[in-house]
Amino acid sequence: MKMEEVWRFIDSGNGSAAFNMALDEALLEWNSKGEFPPVIRFYGWNPATLSIGYFQKVEKEINIEAVREQKLGFVRRPTGGRGVLHEHELTYSVIVPESHPKMPHSVTEAYRVISEGILKGFHQLGLEAYFAVPTSSQERESLKNPRSAVCFDAPSWYELVVEGRKVAGSAQTRQRGVILQHGSILLDLDEDKLFSLFIYPNDRVKERMQKAFKSKAVAVNDISSVRVSLEQAKVAFKAGFEEGLNIKLEPYELSETEMDYVKKIASERYENDEWNFMR
């Protein structure tokens, strides 16, 4: 029998928006230099944070007054995609070389392989999750031209759904020969709060989008027969990643030097308005 490959596992707990993005970036960099094996990381956000995709335009799409009024963190991710409110969720990231034997070359297929871990995590929680593949050409077209600034609004290729509604949203970037995929597994969702953070042409459009959103996205605790706590989610998804990727996850604590480096990236880039408001 083939030995399972060992990856590192970091549960970094709740961090600031800047720290969270900086740690993902540092792990990608260390992996690209061969200083760090593949790693799966779980994290949370303190304060609750709105993260926006790398290509989003703040002044056109985001109601920054509402973000400040509600004392939310705010950060631009290094990955694409749309706005995500990180509040009652388990956030994960996976950092693995593009050349890894388990990783297909195409972004979509690699996304599918990595997301197998999340799929198995939902199964661990007793939820009938599956991958949705857009079937009609119209659906496929709409993926290329997303109308909404809200991330959980559109099921994309290999999106994870339960009962036809999206339960996890992920984004991927590839830099320096390394894949970074991170995403949100929603445990609970405050829809009104989420929809207060974006700019709409008028209230009617906002209402329509919020209504459409309800039919497309759902939080774990809205569909699970028993309430799932963050701790239970961590146990389920850690086991899910081990099963889905056929790996063994070994807990790892960052050294003081590593931690200092992460804080340096956080202050130079992700705490910086120039980065967060750049487009």
From TrEMBL:
Q: What keywords appear on the UniProt entry?
A: Acyltransferase, Ligase, Transferase
Pathway the protein contributes to = Protein modification; protein lipoylation via endogenous pathway; protein N(6)-(lipoyl)lysine from octanoyl-[acyl-carrier-protein]
Q: What else is known?
A: In the reaction, the free carboxyl group of octanoic acid is attached via an amide linkage to the epsilon-amino group of a specific lysine residue of lipoyl domains of lipoate-dependent enzymes. The reaction proceeds via an octanoyl-thioester enzyme intermediate.
Q: Which Gene3D superfamilies match?
A: Bira Bifunctional Protein, Domain 2
The domain of life is: Bacteria
State the organism of origin: Niallia endozanthoxylica
| BP GO annotations | lipoate biosynthetic process; protein lipoylation
EC number annotated for this UniProt entry: 2.3.1.181
Q: Which reaction does it catalyse?
A: octanoyl-[ACP] + L-lysyl-[protein] = N(6)-octanoyl-L-lysyl-[protein] + holo-[ACP] + H(+)
HAMAP family in the record? LipM (MF_02118)
Which sequence ranges form a coiled-coil region, renumbered to this chain?
Answer: none
BPL/LPL catalytic domain spans which residues? 34-249
Protein's UniProt name: Octanoyltransferase LipM
**Catalytic site residues?**
C151 (acyl-thioester intermediate)
Instruction: Point out the annotated site residues (description: Lowers pKa of active site Cys).
Output: K166
Function summary: Catalyzes the transfer of endogenously produced octanoic acid from octanoyl-acyl-carrier-protein onto the lipoyl domain of GcvH, an intermediate carrier during protein lipoylation.
Alphabetized CDD domains for the sequence: LplA
Broad enzyme group: transferase
- Fill in the subunit field for this protein: Monomer.
Question: One Pfam family name from the record?
Answer: LplA-B_cat
Task: Give GO terms: molecular function aspect only.
Answer: ligase activity; lipoyl(octanoyl) transferase activity
Q: Which family does it belong to?
A: Belongs to the octanoyltransferase LipM family.
